[in-house]
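A reminder before we start the practical. When you read a complex entry, don't treat the lines as separate problems. The point of joint prediction is that each chain is placed relative to the others, so the output describes one connected object in space. Small molecules and nucleic acid strands, if listed, are placed in the same frame. In the example below there are three entries. Take a minute to note the order of the lines before looking further.
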Amino acid sequence: MASHMLKDAALFLPEIALTVTILAAIVADLIFRRVRAVVPGIVLAGLIATGFLVLGQQGSSVAIFSSMIAVDAFAVYFKLVILLAAVVVVVFSFGSAELQTGGRKLGEYYALLAAAVLGMMLMAGANNLLMMYLALELSSISSYLLSGYTREAADSSEASLKYVIYGALSSGLMLYGISILYGLTGSLDLATINHIVPVVISAGGPPLYGLLIAGILTLAGFGYKISAVPFHFWAPDVYEGAPITITAFLAVASKAGGFAMLIRFLKVTFFDATGVMAAAGTWEAVRGLRWVDLVAILSVLSMTVGNLTAIWQNNLKRLLAYSSIAHAGYMLMGVAVLNDEGIAAVMLYFVIYLFMNLGAFYAVMLIADKTGSEDIDDYKGLGSRAPFLAVALAIFLISLSGLPPTAGFIGKLYLFAALINKGWIWLAIVGALNSVIALYYYVRVIRNMFLRTDEQQSAPLSLSGMQMTMVLALLVPTLLFGLYFGPLVQLAQASVRIFGAP
Amino acid sequence: MEIFGIGILSWVTFLPVLGMVIVLALPKERRDVIRWTSLAVAAVQVVLAVVLFLRFDRSFAGINTEAGMQFLEKGRWIDVSGVALVGRLHIEYLLGIDGISMVMVLLTALISFIAVISSWTIDKSVKGYFALLLLLDTGMMGVFVALDFFLFYVFWELMLLPMYFLIGVWGGPRREYAAIKFFLYTLLGSVLMLLAMIALYFSVSVYLDPAGGMHALSEAAAGIRTGWEKVHTFNMLAMMDPANYEAGSLLAGINTSWRYLAYIALFIGFAIKVPIFPFHTWLPDAHVEAPTPISVILAGVLLKMGTYGMLRISFPMFPDAMRHYAWELALLGVISMVYGALVAMAQTDFKKLIAYSSVSHMGIVVLGMSSMNTLGLTGAVFQMFNHGVITAMLFLVVGVIYDRAHTRGLNEFGGLMNQMPRYAGAMTVAFFAALGLPGLSGFISEMFSLFGAFQTFPILTAIGAVTIVLTAGYMLWVLQRVFLGALPDKWKGLTDMNGRETFMLAVLGAVVLFCGIYPAPILNLMTSSLNHLAAILAQVPSATLLSGM
Amino acid sequence: MEIPLSYYLLLGAILFAIGVVGTLTRRNAIVIFMCIELMLNSVNLSLIAFSAFLGEITGMVTVFFVMAVAAAEAAVGLAIVIALYRNKPTVNVDEINILKW
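Here is the predicted structure of the whole assembly.
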């Protein structure tokens, strides 16, 4: 038993390293009160070290700690995405003027950030409903605090309150769903549930509806984490109110964790391995309604509502919030396919989404730090005031809308390809039309930057070398992966193996 | 044919990008250097196009065989080895031209060159303007030389953004509206095209040998050698071989509803660009607001991409669906012709009138294409070339008067004949060419199109032929309103065309005149290709062809 | 006499429904947090009932975790309410309305 634990602990090394990082950050914050760079430095080093440890896990496919956590290619991939996003966000935070106001010390901020990352990494690997709940709560509770971090800004604490209420509500719903699933199957382990579900279904009658209710309630928890409609109400407020670094973090890393968990849940729990419903691929929730159909409905709702609402937004952060809801919808299309191709498409999309979305948020942050505004109307004439930044933001937005030759196009292409190959033509058409709608509001920003001029003739904005490097570091992949995406595809396709999935 | 180890088609396509990089590296105060650099790039592109023209072998058919394509360039672009269930991804960098593309390459080089000269008067952020113009140039050229659907699509979309900015930043008062309308319309079409492209990709399979060579399924049926791997492909030529459609795949078979659906999706994508009625509403707005050089490019080249796409992609890949919908296509062509002409007649804005005349003239192209015989197809492709040159002239003519008078209201002018004699000459040539006067290029292509279409759809063509009268009517009416009558006092100070303007119109006028008198060099280019295309279309049995109409 | 499982489940469901409705309709932030606690505890009740009924221990173990998480969540939530109260002396969520559609 002990030797088992030790062997398992060896595979848990990245998480342990991150835990050590969190503790070190808290202690360092107490000791080095004056030196600003110590805590971010420790967290950055910890994240990078964790990343290398995760890299070392490539190729393993086992479940550890009585199959609470799976260590497989799929988890490794998402952990890397989360860590990469976290590293970028830490660098953002270090340069953010918004966080610096009020002379606040930021030690706790970085420690909480690392804690949230730990929660998300656990989400990526969670193989048991209890583990999923705990991981989700760890990342959520840290995120509640982070989004309210700029206490004196009223909108920040308001965002935080809304986040905590919606978050608690959704996780409560999810927990209730989990309890019903437990009652029906007597287990919280995904693979065990998968074995018992056929028995429940073949019994027919009320348990089938029990399963439907349990499934929908559980989906509510995942839906909240990935901000899919109709569980999205928190997202716009939180994204607008939270410090922009945290908004970027939530939009990318948190979503990655949520998607990893959702895919694993659907793939392992509801996948029909016994071939009873071979044609459908996944279990039917009730007669004629497959689980993936529910996902498809969520997807259509998220894309459409996200895009249509984004059109009316004037705050760029809020606009990006709705755009990220719409992106959750796009990625859900890939989840609805739920074969290797669909999952690979989602995973590929995530890496691309990471670069373009973080890039967009960073550009918005730099502009907000200098002009003090996130209002689209204040972006007028930015093309001449800050040409480099404006062009970079334009490219990120174009990539988000999915036009070639940017990486966003490749992401969309793969999603559509997976859909069409599996015969989801109607969903592909809805997705395609949605990307046309999306272009409209992205171009609104570009229009204000380049087509309109600023009446006040404000002074040009200058960027430091460090900021320029950071923008370039996100811009180059966004363009490069649009023209040469072979290695990325290879990586995503090699990482679709999920432990315990057929 | 290679220059410095790089194929000539890559040069002709990517030279403008090179120019863009140079322009971006120049300081923005050096306006003249930027202008001359752009002009040099465009001139070299013309030279390369002429070299292609001279070296082009007229006997090669092209269309659906790699052997028939000339100046072929082939390289591995993306190659991802397959894993379980997902399969290998292989995208080629494949360029090549046949008779249809050759004509378009010539047109693109010529129009881009003229557009750069015409851009001399642009004063607002010169650097950004020329950089975008050159990027647009690459996008256009790329569309005409790409033989891989994926590459084609990238080029197709690459044009959108520069065009958006060129209209949106340097355009007229309602430029923002016009630019976003153009952008959204085209994107709507191209996402549908994207879905059709993916469906084609998954339906078509070929065998790939280790050296990167492709082998059709029919070839592999004779025996698969070692190392051959079955892959899906974006290669357009492979998509044109019905034998490559795997049984059971989405687009396999003939006259299936999926094939019709895919054809319609592609059609909408291309029709928006042409634009065919009822997808034309973006065009007048875009033209009216765009600056003169951009109007020239828009009408001269961009509209041709729609019809080119149909000839290059829709027709050879879906000959069955094309035949099935040939009558509908012809009908839309005729509606565009008549509707465009009627609306043009009612315009008082000079530019809007020409925009609607473009709708009308592109309708002739569509009608000619729907005929499915060599005569009609030749007329259509030649009309694409001629319309490109003639409309470029027309927009330049508008630009000349607008630069001086700052108005485009037709009714405000009169009696300019004596005031601006050179201008009157150029404008008369352009308008007579547009209305199809014998001896000028428009006449030949319109006649070819109509004669060809008459063989297939006599009644429709007869209705469409009314357009010729309508066109003559509104064109002559414009000439009368502008040149005859009394000269209003406020225009007494107008000067005649300067050397630059005269040069542009003289070059284009010479092309129009030459093609009108001796069209053989251009027609020779495309004859064998179009014969082949007509043969492909004729092979398909069709029960529903309404030959009586 | 043994109380059947369905009684526990029904009580759990009723408590849960009260909690959800309360969270969605109440306007006082403190009451909302109480309703959330109600939701979580109704889940605990179902879990224990299931666990006892199935003779399987996972459900009971889960309850301990849920209790710990609920405590953390409540602590964080109340801390946020206090932070908010310093900016604007109210706990009525209708008046907390800087962020809107």
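Discuss with your neighbour: The beta strands of chain B are 2-3, 6-7, 70-80, 89-97, 205-208, 214-215, 229-232. What might explain this?
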